[in-house]
Amino acid sequence: MEELVNKYIKERKKEDFALIYRLSFDNLYRFILSKTNSKEITDEVVSDTYFLLIDLIDHYDSTKSKFSTFLFGIALNKLRQKWSNQKANKTFSLNEDIYIDQNNYKPSSRRKELIKKIEDALPQLSTKYRKILEKRFFESKTIKTVSEELNLSISNVTTIQNRALNKLRAIINEKI
Fold first, then answer.
1. 8 A C-beta contact, residue 158 and residue 172
2. Mean pLDDT computed over 46-72
3. I need a surface site. Which of 2, 28, 34, 73 has the fewest CB within 10 A?
4. How far apart are CA 113 and CA 62, in angstroms?
5. Does a structural domain hold residue 102?
């Protein structure tokens, strides 16, 4: 594989890149799928990886690493970037069943009921728990921002958030 990659770097023949793609695709796809458990995300990450590879392949040095290491490194970076973007775009979620967009949301009756239960349960939480959840999910602030605002460590904010969500779930489940 390394010889083929070096040949492609020197000659830039489309056929060589196509062969690199065919020879490496299955292993890369299985690797990313094992990380995501999502065909959709895997398709996107693998596709982005090969597009980026076209630009970055000149940086590959066969004396420093195997090509598969280089390729998988690009893919892992794309996956981390995807996960980071997903975290940043998350508005509110007790589980993946709820998404609230205040401007454009028409909830089903089941969701209306769940939202009502959440609204009723929030006041039952301690001030500390409620404050963390409000900042994280209603104000869409990152854990780092919340930790700075409340003068708490990131790990402390994460722990409090998890405990608050568990308590909120318990309160809601009691009412079901």
1. no
2. 85
3. 34
4. 59
5. no
For the chain, the maximum distance between any two Cα atoms, rounded to a whole number of angstroms, is 68
Task: State phi, psi for 142 to the nearest 5 degrees.
Answer: -75, 165
The DSSP output letter for 136 is I
pLDDT tens digits for range 121-133: 888 989 999 899 8
Each residue's pLDDT tens digit, 15-42? 888 888 888 888 889 888 888 888 888 8
In this structure, are residues 82 and 44 in contact, taking their beta carbons and an 8 Å threshold?
Answer: yes
H and E: helices and strands count for the chain: 8, 0
Residue with tokens 């854990």, as numbered in its chain: 143
Residue type, 133: L
Confidence at 87, pLDDT banded by 50, 70, 90: low
